[in-house]
What we know:
By secondary structure, the protein is an alpha/beta fold.
Amino acid sequence: MVKEVTPITDVFGRSLRDLRISVIDKCNFRCTYCMPKEIFGDDYPFLPESELLSFEEIIRVAKTFAKLGVEKIRITGGEPLLRKNLDQLIAKLTEIPGIDDIALTTNAVLLPKRATKLKEAGLKRVNISLDAIDDDVFTKINGRGVPIRPVLRGIEAAKQAGLKVKVNMVVKKGMNESQILPMARYFKGKDIILRYIEFMDVGNHNGWDLNHVISKKQIIDRIHEEMPIEAAEENYYGEVASRFRYQDGEGEIGVISSVTDSFCGTCTRIRLSADGKLYTCLFASSGYDLRGRLRDGITDEELQTNLTGLWKRRTDRYSDERAERKHENRKKIEMSYIGG
Ligand code: SAM
Ligand code: SF4
Ligand code: SF4
Protein backbone atom coordinates (compact mmCIF):
# COMPACT_ATOMS: atom_id res chain seq x y z
CA MET A 1 0.00 0.00 0.00
CA VAL A 2 1.29 3.51 -0.79
CA LYS A 3 2.05 5.47 2.33
CA GLU A 4 0.52 8.93 2.20
CA VAL A 5 2.41 10.93 4.78
CA THR A 6 2.62 14.65 5.41
CA PRO A 7 5.52 14.90 7.88
CA ILE A 8 5.30 17.80 10.28
CA THR A 9 7.75 19.54 12.59
CA ASP A 10 7.29 21.60 15.73
CA VAL A 11 8.57 25.09 16.55
CA PHE A 12 12.09 23.71 17.11
CA GLY A 13 12.11 21.60 13.93
CA ARG A 14 11.45 18.29 15.71
CA SER A 15 9.53 15.70 13.67
CA LEU A 16 6.63 13.67 14.98
CA ARG A 17 7.59 9.98 14.99
CA ASP A 18 6.39 8.22 18.14
CA LEU A 19 2.98 7.83 19.69
CA ARG A 20 2.65 6.46 23.23
CA ILE A 21 -0.81 5.25 24.12
CA SER A 22 -1.88 4.68 27.71
CA VAL A 23 -4.80 2.24 27.47
CA ILE A 24 -5.81 2.17 31.15
CA ASP A 25 -5.05 4.10 34.35
CA LYS A 26 -5.47 1.11 36.71
CA CYS A 27 -2.60 -1.07 37.83
CA ASN A 28 -2.09 -4.27 39.79
CA PHE A 29 1.02 -2.76 41.45
CA ARG A 30 1.40 0.31 43.64
CA CYS A 31 5.05 1.18 42.97
CA THR A 32 6.12 3.69 45.57
CA TYR A 33 7.63 6.05 42.96
CA CYS A 34 4.64 5.93 40.60
CA MET A 35 1.30 5.11 42.29
CA PRO A 36 2.01 5.16 46.03
CA LYS A 37 -0.74 3.21 47.80
CA GLU A 38 -1.30 6.02 50.30
CA ILE A 39 -2.69 8.08 47.37
CA PHE A 40 -3.86 5.41 44.93
CA GLY A 41 -5.70 3.39 47.58
CA ASP A 42 -9.10 1.72 47.66
CA ASP A 43 -10.97 5.00 47.26
CA TYR A 44 -8.99 6.33 44.35
CA PRO A 45 -11.34 7.44 41.55
CA PHE A 46 -9.99 5.39 38.65
CA LEU A 47 -11.62 6.02 35.30
CA PRO A 48 -14.82 4.12 34.49
CA GLU A 49 -14.61 2.18 31.23
CA SER A 50 -16.77 4.74 29.42
CA GLU A 51 -14.10 7.38 29.99
CA LEU A 52 -11.32 5.32 28.46
CA LEU A 53 -10.91 5.71 24.73
CA SER A 54 -12.47 2.78 22.90
CA PHE A 55 -10.30 0.69 20.56
CA GLU A 56 -12.11 2.27 17.59
CA GLU A 57 -11.23 5.75 18.86
CA ILE A 58 -7.60 4.80 19.49
CA ILE A 59 -7.28 3.29 16.01
CA ARG A 60 -8.78 6.37 14.39
CA VAL A 61 -6.29 8.60 16.19
CA ALA A 62 -3.37 6.30 15.37
CA LYS A 63 -4.31 6.28 11.68
CA THR A 64 -4.36 10.07 11.63
CA PHE A 65 -0.99 10.24 13.36
CA ALA A 66 0.48 7.75 10.88
CA LYS A 67 -0.46 10.20 8.14
CA LEU A 68 1.53 12.86 9.97
CA GLY A 69 4.70 10.80 10.22
CA VAL A 70 4.26 8.55 13.27
CA GLU A 71 6.04 5.23 12.69
CA LYS A 72 6.31 3.80 16.19
CA ILE A 73 3.64 3.09 18.77
CA ARG A 74 4.17 2.11 22.38
CA ILE A 75 1.28 0.74 24.44
CA THR A 76 1.46 1.54 28.13
CA GLY A 77 -0.67 2.37 31.19
CA GLY A 78 -1.31 1.95 34.22
CA GLU A 79 -0.82 -1.72 33.56
CA PRO A 80 -1.80 -2.22 29.90
CA LEU A 81 -2.40 -5.95 30.28
CA LEU A 82 -5.36 -5.12 32.52
CA ARG A 83 -7.16 -3.76 29.45
CA LYS A 84 -9.42 -6.47 28.06
CA ASN A 85 -8.67 -7.87 24.59
CA LEU A 86 -5.50 -5.82 24.18
CA ASP A 87 -4.33 -8.25 21.49
CA GLN A 88 -7.27 -7.13 19.32
CA LEU A 89 -6.11 -3.53 19.52
CA ILE A 90 -2.56 -4.53 18.64
CA ALA A 91 -3.73 -6.56 15.65
CA LYS A 92 -5.57 -3.49 14.30
CA LEU A 93 -2.65 -1.13 14.94
CA THR A 94 -0.25 -3.38 13.02
CA GLU A 95 -2.48 -3.02 9.95
CA ILE A 96 -2.06 0.76 9.80
CA PRO A 97 0.11 1.77 6.83
CA GLY A 98 3.29 3.48 8.01
CA ILE A 99 3.36 1.97 11.51
CA ASP A 100 6.39 -0.26 11.49
CA ASP A 101 7.05 -0.80 15.18
CA ILE A 102 4.68 -1.56 18.05
CA ALA A 103 5.96 -2.17 21.57
CA LEU A 104 4.42 -2.72 24.98
CA THR A 105 5.59 -1.63 28.44
CA THR A 106 4.37 -3.89 31.24
CA ASN A 107 5.14 -5.16 34.71
CA ALA A 108 4.86 -8.65 33.14
CA VAL A 109 2.76 -10.32 35.81
CA LEU A 110 -0.01 -11.11 33.30
CA LEU A 111 2.34 -12.06 30.47
CA PRO A 112 2.31 -15.82 31.04
CA LYS A 113 -1.39 -15.74 30.10
CA ARG A 114 -1.11 -13.23 27.28
CA ALA A 115 2.29 -13.43 25.58
CA THR A 116 1.37 -15.92 22.85
CA LYS A 117 -1.80 -14.06 21.84
CA LEU A 118 0.06 -10.76 21.77
CA LYS A 119 2.76 -12.22 19.56
CA GLU A 120 0.15 -13.70 17.25
CA ALA A 121 -1.50 -10.26 17.05
CA GLY A 122 1.75 -8.84 15.67
CA LEU A 123 3.56 -7.54 18.74
CA LYS A 124 7.32 -7.91 18.36
CA ARG A 125 8.79 -6.63 21.57
CA VAL A 126 8.08 -5.85 25.21
CA ASN A 127 9.77 -3.67 27.78
CA ILE A 128 9.37 -5.22 31.18
CA SER A 129 9.73 -3.16 34.32
CA LEU A 130 11.63 -4.82 37.15
CA ASP A 131 13.33 -2.69 39.77
CA ALA A 132 15.08 -5.36 41.84
CA ILE A 133 16.13 -8.99 41.72
CA ASP A 134 15.86 -9.42 45.47
CA ASP A 135 12.42 -10.32 46.83
CA ASP A 136 12.69 -8.16 49.94
CA VAL A 137 13.52 -5.05 47.95
CA PHE A 138 11.03 -5.76 45.17
CA THR A 139 8.04 -6.54 47.41
CA LYS A 140 8.51 -3.20 49.15
CA ILE A 141 8.76 -1.25 45.88
CA ASN A 142 5.70 -2.69 44.16
CA GLY A 143 3.48 -2.01 47.18
CA ARG A 144 1.56 -5.25 46.68
CA GLY A 145 4.04 -7.68 48.16
CA VAL A 146 4.59 -9.39 44.79
CA PRO A 147 7.85 -11.36 44.71
CA ILE A 148 10.08 -11.40 41.62
CA ARG A 149 9.08 -14.91 40.49
CA PRO A 150 5.86 -13.85 38.67
CA VAL A 151 7.82 -11.19 36.79
CA LEU A 152 10.56 -13.66 35.85
CA ARG A 153 7.83 -16.03 34.63
CA GLY A 154 6.46 -13.18 32.53
CA ILE A 155 9.91 -12.57 31.02
CA GLU A 156 10.25 -16.26 30.26
CA ALA A 157 6.79 -16.40 28.67
CA ALA A 158 7.60 -13.42 26.46
CA LYS A 159 10.82 -15.02 25.26
CA GLN A 160 9.13 -18.35 24.66
CA ALA A 161 6.48 -16.61 22.58
CA GLY A 162 9.24 -15.09 20.44
CA LEU A 163 9.01 -11.51 21.73
CA LYS A 164 12.17 -9.45 22.13
CA VAL A 165 12.58 -8.40 25.75
CA LYS A 166 14.21 -5.41 27.38
CA VAL A 167 14.09 -4.93 31.15
CA ASN A 168 13.73 -1.44 32.62
CA MET A 169 14.83 -0.62 36.15
CA VAL A 170 14.12 2.75 37.74
CA VAL A 171 16.96 3.56 40.12
CA LYS A 172 16.16 5.65 43.15
CA LYS A 173 18.46 6.43 46.03
CA GLY A 174 17.34 4.76 49.25
CA MET A 175 15.04 2.44 47.30
CA ASN A 176 17.09 0.09 45.16
CA GLU A 177 20.62 1.28 44.42
CA SER A 178 21.75 -1.93 46.14
CA GLN A 179 20.27 -3.72 43.12
CA ILE A 180 22.32 -2.07 40.37
CA LEU A 181 24.99 -4.77 40.35
CA PRO A 182 22.80 -7.80 41.18
CA MET A 183 20.47 -6.87 38.28
CA ALA A 184 23.42 -6.52 35.89
CA ARG A 185 24.85 -9.86 37.00
CA TYR A 186 21.49 -11.56 36.61
CA PHE A 187 20.72 -10.35 33.07
CA LYS A 188 24.26 -10.38 31.66
CA GLY A 189 24.65 -13.02 28.96
CA LYS A 190 20.91 -13.75 28.82
CA ASP A 191 20.16 -11.90 25.55
CA ILE A 192 18.06 -9.36 27.47
CA ILE A 193 19.08 -5.71 27.52
CA LEU A 194 18.80 -4.21 30.98
CA ARG A 195 18.18 -0.47 31.01
CA TYR A 196 18.62 1.69 34.06
CA ILE A 197 16.32 4.71 34.29
CA GLU A 198 17.10 7.77 36.35
CA PHE A 199 14.27 8.54 38.76
CA MET A 200 12.25 11.36 37.20
CA ASP A 201 10.06 14.14 38.54
CA VAL A 202 6.89 12.93 36.83
CA GLY A 203 3.48 13.20 38.49
CA ASN A 204 2.74 14.97 41.76
CA HIS A 205 2.88 12.28 44.40
CA ASN A 206 6.25 10.59 44.39
CA GLY A 207 8.06 13.20 46.47
CA TRP A 208 10.77 13.62 43.84
CA ASP A 209 13.95 15.32 44.88
CA LEU A 210 17.20 15.68 42.93
CA ASN A 211 18.96 14.03 45.88
CA HIS A 212 17.07 10.82 45.09
CA VAL A 213 18.56 10.58 41.63
CA ILE A 214 21.43 8.18 41.03
CA SER A 215 23.08 9.54 37.93
CA LYS A 216 24.01 7.75 34.75
CA LYS A 217 27.67 8.32 35.60
CA GLN A 218 27.30 6.73 39.03
CA ILE A 219 25.52 3.73 37.53
CA ILE A 220 28.06 3.25 34.76
CA ASP A 221 31.05 3.63 37.09
CA ARG A 222 29.65 1.06 39.48
CA ILE A 223 29.06 -1.52 36.75
CA HIS A 224 32.34 -0.85 34.96
CA GLU A 225 34.33 -1.50 38.10
CA GLU A 226 33.08 -5.08 38.28
CA MET A 227 32.04 -5.84 34.70
CA PRO A 228 33.99 -3.65 32.25
CA ILE A 229 31.82 -1.91 29.66
CA GLU A 230 32.42 0.46 26.75
CA ALA A 231 30.15 2.97 25.03
CA ALA A 232 28.29 1.72 21.97
CA GLU A 233 26.83 3.81 19.13
CA GLU A 234 23.20 4.96 18.93
CA ASN A 235 20.87 2.48 17.18
CA TYR A 236 18.64 5.17 15.68
CA TYR A 237 18.08 8.94 15.72
CA GLY A 238 16.72 10.15 19.04
CA GLU A 239 17.35 6.89 20.96
CA VAL A 240 16.82 7.81 24.61
CA ALA A 241 19.05 5.15 26.15
CA SER A 242 22.84 5.49 26.02
CA ARG A 243 24.19 2.05 25.15
CA PHE A 244 27.16 0.30 26.72
CA ARG A 245 28.44 -3.13 25.76
CA TYR A 246 30.19 -5.57 28.03
CA GLN A 247 33.82 -5.87 26.97
CA ASP A 248 33.65 -9.65 27.30
CA GLY A 249 30.95 -9.80 24.60
CA GLU A 250 28.14 -10.85 26.95
CA GLY A 251 25.58 -8.33 25.73
CA GLU A 252 24.83 -4.73 26.59
CA ILE A 253 23.08 -2.42 29.02
CA GLY A 254 21.45 0.97 28.55
CA VAL A 255 20.99 4.03 30.73
CA ILE A 256 18.14 6.49 30.31
CA SER A 257 19.44 9.65 31.86
CA SER A 258 16.43 11.91 31.51
CA VAL A 259 17.52 13.98 34.49
CA THR A 260 21.29 14.39 34.15
CA ASP A 261 21.29 14.68 30.34
CA SER A 262 18.32 16.15 28.65
CA PHE A 263 17.31 14.98 25.22
CA CYS A 264 14.51 17.41 24.36
CA GLY A 265 16.37 18.41 21.19
CA THR A 266 15.57 15.06 19.57
CA CYS A 267 12.21 14.40 21.23
CA THR A 268 9.76 13.15 18.60
CA ARG A 269 7.16 11.76 21.03
CA ILE A 270 3.49 12.55 21.61
CA ARG A 271 1.41 10.87 24.31
CA LEU A 272 -2.23 9.88 24.47
CA SER A 273 -3.44 9.45 28.04
CA ALA A 274 -5.92 6.87 29.27
CA ASP A 275 -8.65 9.53 29.42
CA GLY A 276 -8.08 10.58 25.84
CA LYS A 277 -5.96 13.69 26.25
CA LEU A 278 -2.93 14.42 24.11
CA TYR A 279 0.29 15.62 25.68
CA THR A 280 3.25 16.91 23.72
CA CYS A 281 5.56 16.42 26.74
CA LEU A 282 5.78 13.89 29.58
CA PHE A 283 5.87 16.80 32.04
CA ALA A 284 2.99 18.80 30.62
CA SER A 285 0.38 20.11 33.02
CA SER A 286 -2.50 20.17 30.59
CA GLY A 287 -3.50 18.16 27.56
CA TYR A 288 -5.62 18.53 24.46
CA ASP A 289 -9.05 16.98 25.01
CA LEU A 290 -9.19 14.62 22.09
CA ARG A 291 -11.88 12.37 23.56
CA GLY A 292 -14.29 15.31 23.73
CA ARG A 293 -13.63 16.20 20.09
CA LEU A 294 -13.97 12.58 18.94
CA ARG A 295 -17.25 12.15 20.76
CA ASP A 296 -18.55 15.48 19.44
CA GLY A 297 -18.26 14.15 15.90
CA ILE A 298 -15.08 15.77 14.60
CA THR A 299 -14.47 14.88 10.93
CA ASP A 300 -11.29 13.11 9.78
CA GLU A 301 -10.14 16.25 8.03
CA GLU A 302 -10.67 18.43 11.12
CA LEU A 303 -8.91 15.83 13.25
CA GLN A 304 -5.86 15.86 11.01
CA THR A 305 -5.83 19.67 10.96
CA ASN A 306 -6.11 19.89 14.76
CA LEU A 307 -3.35 17.36 15.40
CA THR A 308 -1.11 19.08 12.88
CA GLY A 309 -1.67 22.42 14.59
CA LEU A 310 -1.01 20.96 18.02
CA TRP A 311 2.40 19.60 16.96
CA LYS A 312 3.35 22.67 14.94
CA ARG A 313 2.80 24.89 17.99
CA ARG A 314 4.84 22.62 20.27
CA THR A 315 7.60 24.33 22.26
CA ASP A 316 8.11 21.79 25.11
CA ARG A 317 11.62 21.30 26.46
CA TYR A 318 10.98 20.57 30.12
CA SER A 319 14.16 18.57 30.79
CA ASP A 320 16.32 21.25 29.21
CA GLU A 321 14.60 23.78 31.44
CA ARG A 322 14.67 21.66 34.60
CA ALA A 323 18.16 22.84 35.40
CA GLU A 324 16.87 26.41 35.37
CA ARG A 325 14.28 25.34 37.98
CA LYS A 326 11.56 27.06 35.99
CA HIS A 327 8.79 24.64 36.83
CA GLU A 328 9.18 23.90 40.50
CA ASN A 329 5.52 24.17 41.40
CA ARG A 330 4.02 23.01 38.15
CA LYS A 331 1.17 20.49 38.50
CA LYS A 332 1.88 17.56 36.21
CA ILE A 333 -0.02 14.70 34.69
CA GLU A 334 0.25 11.44 36.67
CA MET A 335 2.50 8.72 35.23
CA SER A 336 -0.33 6.19 35.51
CA TYR A 337 -2.42 8.30 33.08
CA ILE A 338 0.33 9.05 30.61
CA GLY A 339 2.40 5.89 30.91
CA GLY A 340 6.01 7.04 30.67
N1 SAM B 1 2.78 -0.60 34.37
C1 SAM B 1 3.67 -0.69 33.28
C2 SAM B 1 5.09 -0.86 33.75
O1 SAM B 1 5.38 -0.57 34.91
O2 SAM B 1 5.91 -1.25 32.91
C3 SAM B 1 3.58 0.46 32.30
C4 SAM B 1 3.38 1.83 32.85
S1 SAM B 1 4.70 2.48 33.83
C5 SAM B 1 4.07 4.08 34.26
C6 SAM B 1 5.92 2.80 32.58
C7 SAM B 1 7.33 2.97 33.06
O3 SAM B 1 7.46 4.19 33.74
C8 SAM B 1 7.84 1.89 34.00
O4 SAM B 1 9.04 1.33 33.50
C9 SAM B 1 8.10 2.64 35.27
O5 SAM B 1 9.14 2.08 36.02
C10 SAM B 1 8.42 4.02 34.75
N2 SAM B 1 8.26 5.07 35.76
C11 SAM B 1 7.19 5.34 36.53
N3 SAM B 1 7.43 6.39 37.35
C12 SAM B 1 8.71 6.80 37.08
C13 SAM B 1 9.55 7.83 37.60
N4 SAM B 1 9.14 8.65 38.55
N5 SAM B 1 10.79 7.95 37.08
C14 SAM B 1 11.22 7.11 36.11
N6 SAM B 1 10.48 6.14 35.58
C15 SAM B 1 9.24 5.97 36.06
FE1 SF4 C 1 1.95 0.22 37.93
FE2 SF4 C 1 3.88 0.51 36.17
FE3 SF4 C 1 3.30 2.50 37.87
FE4 SF4 C 1 4.42 0.30 38.83
S1 SF4 C 1 5.34 1.71 37.35
S2 SF4 C 1 2.64 1.37 39.69
S3 SF4 C 1 3.59 -1.25 37.52
S4 SF4 C 1 2.01 1.74 36.29
FE1 SF4 D 1 10.39 15.29 25.31
FE2 SF4 D 1 9.30 16.73 27.29
FE3 SF4 D 1 10.99 14.73 27.84
FE4 SF4 D 1 11.91 16.99 26.73
S1 SF4 D 1 11.00 16.78 28.73
S2 SF4 D 1 12.45 14.88 26.14
S3 SF4 D 1 10.17 17.52 25.39
S4 SF4 D 1 8.97 14.53 26.87
